Amino acid sequence: MLTINSIKNGIVIDHIKAGYGMKIYKYLDLDKADYSVALIMNAESKKLKKKDIIKIENNIELDLAVLGFIDPNITIDIIKDETIYKKIKLKLPDRVENIIACKNPRCVTSVEKNIPHIFKLVDENTGEYRCEYCDQIYENLSL
């Protein structure tokens, strides 16, 4: 079994759906980090069978709405002095702005520039979002 040491101060992004760790790693630009980062893929999990984990030896700004949109089952552990200081459980955000783009060619966001792409959560169980302007449906396939 692989062993990754604990971190003194930083962030652990845990319970990432297996295979989504790299997506989050790239979104956070962790490949450009000048501090220690560990990406663990396909780790054993009692709940999920397999999961990804990201350990970051630094406190960085995280957009919880985007992370919740990518995978609503994620937990964020804030680590101070090698212990969990704070635990944040994510969920699907009620509203997302400029995270996804409307695919409807007749939508005002397709025609006009500088209009934000805004989607509202319609069904939490299916991850269905609707465009605020034209009601185009977007299904979050990460669920």
Automatic annotation (TrEMBL):
Q: Which UniProt keywords apply?
A: Metal-binding, Pyrimidine biosynthesis, Zinc
What are the TM regions of this chain, as residue ranges? none
Q: Which biological process, per GO, is one annotated for this protein?
A: 'de novo' pyrimidine nucleobase biosynthetic process
Q: Where is the Aspartate carbamoyltransferase regulatory subunit N-terminal domain?
A: 2-91
Keyword Zinc present in the record's keywords: the answer is yes
* Gene3D superfamilies for the chain: Aspartate carbamoyltransferase regulatory subunit, C-terminal domain, Aspartate carbamoyltransferase regulatory subunit, N-terminal domain
Reply yes or no: does the keyword Magnesium apply: no
Q: What is this protein called?
A: PyrI
Q: Which organism is it from?
A: Clostridium kluyveri (strain ATCC 8527 / DSM 555 / NBRC 12016 / NCIMB 10680 / K1)
What does the record give as the organism's lineage? Bacteria, Bacillati, Bacillota, Clostridia, Eubacteriales
